[in-house]
Design a protein that fits this description.
Elements: H1 18-25, H2 29-35, E1 47-48, E2 55-64, H3 70-78, E3 84-88, H4 100-109, E4 113-117, E5 119-120, H5 123-129, E6 133-135, E7 137-138, E8 149-151, E9 155-157, E10 160-162, E11 167-171, E12 174-178, H6 183-208
Parallel strand pairs: 2-3, 3-4, 4-6, 5-7
Antiparallel strand pairs: 1-6, 2-8, 2-11, 9-10, 11-12
Helix pairs in contact: 1-6, 2-6, 4-5
């Protein structure tokens, strides 16, 4: 009996409200993770590839063979402006899944950034053009382009499940994944965490200056 063939799912999936994305984008990833009971935090090895990079947007998911970026090229044809392209690349560190050229194309398309469970190259150039990329590793080795890949399917990203339309937040601490259907509640809870920490920090600073 042959295995079933997996097909791409509908790329026209529901996205979260922009106001919820904007609220989460203003908050530290750590506070958002705390608001989700420390769940939804991607593997700590996945970090910004240039200082100051930040991610905020709905996930457009790509599931690809390790070291192969055919699916990323396909995603650029279908993703919407404001999407974060999330790539489940098997955690492979031997081949860069994208670099400056894909980054330039993504800027032209309005893509908000990339989150890769895999490697990247041209890190300095990506910083110069301002394309936010979070990845597991940096390597000069280029990718294969043969596939297979699947777009718009549920993926495992850095140990966290990601559904199309979930909100991806990335900052200097790493990446968190907020389930789309819980996003408004998580934003409210994370804002409360941020306010509490701000008050506690102010109290600590005031005590130091007494």
């Amino acid at each position: 009996m042959s295995a079933p063939v997996l097909e791409d799912l509908d790329a026209d999936f529901p996205r979260p409200d922009q106001d919820v994305i904007d609220r989460l984008a203003k908050l530290p990833a750590a506070n958002i993770g705390d608001a989700m009971d420390r769940l939804g935090v991607a593997d700590s090895a996945i970090q910004a590839v240039w200082p100051g990079a930040r991610l905020a947007g709905p996930a457009f998911t790509v599931w690809t063979r390790p070291g192969d970026n055919q699916g990323i090229h396909r995603a650029l044809q279908l993703a919407r402006s404001g999407d974060v392209i999330v790539v489940a690349g098997g955690g492979d560190e031997s081949r860069a899944l994208l670099g400056e050229l894909i980054g330039e194309r993504a800027i032209n398309l309005g893509i908000a950034g990339f989150a890769l469970d895999g490697a990247v190259r041209d890190a300095e150039a990506l910083g110069e053009i301002g394309m936010p990329v979070f990845a597991r590793a940096i390597t000069p080795a280029g990718p294969y382009k043969n596939g297979p890949s699947r777009l718009g399917s549920p993926v495992a990203f850095g140990g966290v499940p990601v559904m199309p339309g979930d909100i991806i937040i990335g900052d200097s601490d790493g990446v968190v994944v907020v389930p789309r259907e819980q996003a408004a509640a998580v934003a409210e809870a994370a804002e409360a965490v941020f306010a509490d920490e701000t008050n506690r920090r102010s109290a600590i600073v005031a005590e130091r200056h007494k």
